[in-house]
Amino acid sequence: MKRIISTDDAPEAVGAYSQATTNGDLVFTAGQIPMTPDGELLDDEDITTQTRQSLENVQGILEEEGLTMEDVLKATVFLADIDDFEEMNAAYKEYFVDNPPARSAVQAGALPKGVGVEIEVIASE
Ligand SMILES: C=C(N)C(=O)O
């Protein structure tokens, strides 16, 4: 059965989607953009800052379900510009130190709100 996950520790959806969903086993987060939980968009910040905020949002959602970043099975990173890969990767590693999840990283043509990075994950206890 699908259940909607909602938390104040990540920004509200900027469109017609939920912050995350679960079937009671797997947790699927929406793509998290660099927006603070109180709605400040960090689109003008560098990719390090944008990546950290996106992952802070992921972390906030997971914590709502009693999960941690160690429970992430798969991550997908969307970059507006693949030339930002190394900078994104360095910040990303701060959040996934040991046994990182599987990951795909791709360049998207453009991202919502003009941000440089968007990150979604699938996690399970
Ligand atoms: C920001 C998003 N995750 C969206 O628009 O789907």
How would you summarize this macromolecular structure in one to three sentences?
By secondary structure, the chain is an alpha+beta fold. Helices cover 22% and strands 26% of the residues. The two termini are 17 Å apart.
What does this structure look like?
The protein is of the alpha+beta class and 125 residues long. It has a single domain, classed as 60s Ribosomal Protein L30, Chain: A (2-Layer Sandwich). 22% of the residues lie in helices and 26% in strands. Strands 1-2-3-6-4-5 form a six-stranded mixed β-sheet, covered by helices on one side. The mean pLDDT is 97. The site of 2-amino-acrylic acid has 7 residues, from loops.
Features:
single chain; 125 residues; alpha+beta; 60s Ribosomal Protein L30, Chain: A; 6-stranded mixed beta sheet; 2 helices; 22% helix; globular; binds 2-amino-acrylic acid; RidA_CS; RidA; hydrolase; YjgF/YER057c/UK114; hydrolase activity
CATH topology, what is it called? Answer: 60s Ribosomal Protein L30, Chain: A
% residues in beta strands: 25-35%
The whole-number mean of residue pLDDT values reads 97
Which sequence of SSEs, written as H and E, runs from N to C?
A: EEEHEHEE
- Radius of gyration (CA) equals 13 Å
The first-level CATH class is given as Alpha Beta
State the separation between the terminal residues, measured CA to CA. Answer: 17 Å
Main sheet overview: 6 strands, mixed
Which regions have little confidence, pLDDT < 50, spanning 5+ residues?
Answer: none
Reported CATH architecture: 2-Layer Sandwich
- Structural class by helix and strand composition: alpha+beta
Give the strand tally: 6
InterPro entries: RidA (IPR006056), RidA_CS (IPR019897), RutC-like_sf (IPR035959), YjgF/YER057c/UK114 (IPR006175)
Protein name: Rid family detoxifying hydrolase
Family: Belongs to the RutC family.
Keywords: Hydrolase
